[in-house]
């Protein structure tokens, strides 16, 4: 265990303790409770590196023509063929200038003394007349003498270079003879060409030695892009793209090292450039996210796939960018944005009232319910029906009490890392009858969330003009009641105002460490114009991204925006709302059946998915009449089933809602947690780690029992040893024998310091003036500069002195 080294009169000796890492129990417990900032992490993924089961937005391979930097893609033509890289001289020689060296070592040249320009292979060195241009044909090539500029023809008396145009006899086939050699077939009979001492003629049935030539070129041959019916032979391109807002891309041929380039003179494609060579890539239509066109910046012509029966060439000679110039882009791998699992709640009914959640607010000035069914249908109607001062007093009281800092602290202490905050346009533009004053409470929320390590997703729930036609938008007119007039779904008519709301709020909170991102429009009605909605999304995205480069941008699933060609989008997710029994079918009592339905609802999309709203509402079942034990079992498994679906196949979820005005409601997250049906409030049920990409899939199988508990890595004897050392130190401190004070206490102090240092090294934490902070990662490939690869995932200590916030100088868009 160790030995005494002796103590001299100066106290220089020290007790030699065993080299084990001792973490004081109190310290270890405190460290395990810290929750820290976590920035977006960019990691390359493909089919071999993906965690299982797969999540939407992380499906490989998939058709996706966004073509972002770092993507690896393959291109398929409308013929069903694939682009392939060929080193066959039949392709690599096309468009090149070549001299042919016969098997006897002599070069073939146009005989200047022959009246019709016959080719003879009798030159020791290649003269000027030995060079030929290999021109691109449909499925053949032609030879054109450099000296005279005439095309060569397969005539009965031999190959004569005296033609001014190309017809059948001027067409030759190049055959790969192996080892860099070629043979030529004439166009007249398809026979091989050779010179056996009387000039070159095409009369040989087999590829004998005289018919084999070594091509000598003016520059090294590079791989050509051709078509193949074999998908396994498709070339993979590695995308280099500096600016998502530009069409310019460079595509490196994987495994070859050179970049795709288009020859200006011929339009042929090849992996021929040692440096990045730009092509223009464009998505084709608003409704097609899978197809792109490629265009030469020099000629302006589009790359097309020639009909395979005509040789299958790939050439930039199309001036329309349609038909044969369209390409399906298969994404085989790429850099994906990874964020910790979002576990959140909606702060519903705070800044946007919903009558079913707030009947205690929907009464007239005498305290009675509104008599007319058309009165106070939504928040606009309520404010319009009340006296201005009565409305102000009622709303101020509501805003100041519905959500407080205690609520945010409770959420952070019980496993919730994010809040979704529904609001209406009147938060920024409180025109009558709406009451002004919400912004100060939203400011407070951000401060509370910063203190308690909870992220904020701003949720534009009520756009001006209404995007839903429902009371949940707060200004929908008749809100679907035909007896009350017209229902509004005209948010696009108020586009400028709605974009100003997004601009002002995203600018106001862009620098808050609690700011996660912006949900642009909640539950857009299917009656809106899909194309105009997508254009609105593009403008909203540009605004949000201009304020914060890492902000998460959320679009609702109406019209499935992930199928539209947003060329420059990144860090976007599609929002789905899934309520069993409300447009999703009633839940069965068989949770495995429910699980299959839930999993299907969140898979198969091009983007990552957030389940923006869900609950334990068991519509279709009169659970209040069930035996209590059966009811408890059903809801406990119903909760685990949904958590397993959302956390196994999406990037996170938000429960609707954090609270309701009545207790014991399946719409009330806090009650459902405290009763034990949701994780975070009992030791029996806890959440899996948030780093889903580094966590076994079984960890999220809540319904199936999760993963087996790993064996403890802490040896049992370390705990009593740490306690014994602490007790010995206390005794020695009281007795204070000088030799023990110098030796033992010094050793114990050193051990404690070493243990603290070891704990810091293990966890990546150091103490600082504002609490515990992460040490910068030294790994070059960590995916996020200066940040660790992993995050602590235990319960969170939300005391003021133990925040997971780094110094203000470090940019951190949000806190987890």
From TrEMBL:
Q: Which CDD domains match?
A: beta-trefoil_FSCN-like
Under catalytic activity, the entry for this protein gives: Successive hydrolysis of beta-D-glucose units from the non-reducing ends of (1->3)-beta-D-glucans, releasing alpha-glucose
The region called Disordered is annotated at: 791-816
Its top-level enzyme class, in one word, is hydrolase
Q: Which Pfam families match?
A: Cellulase
Q: What is its EC number?
A: 3.2.1.58
Keyword set includes Flavoprotein: no
Glycoside hydrolase family domain residues: 388-659
Q: Which GO terms describe its biological process?
A: cell wall organization; glucan catabolic process
Q: Which Gene Ontology cellular component terms are annotated?
A: cell surface; extracellular region; plasma membrane
Q: Give me the segments passing through the membrane.
A: 714-735, 742-766
Bilayer topology reads:
Single-pass type II membrane protein
Q: Output compositional bias ranges, type Basic and acidic residues.
A: 791-804
Q: PANTHER family annotated for this entry?
A: GLUCAN 1,3-BETA-GLUCOSIDASE 2, GLUCAN ENDO-1,6-BETA-GLUCOSIDASE B
Q: Which family does it belong to?
A: Belongs to the glycosyl hydrolase 5 (cellulase A) family.
What protein does this entry describe? glucan 1,3-beta-glucosidase
The species is Alexandrium monilatum
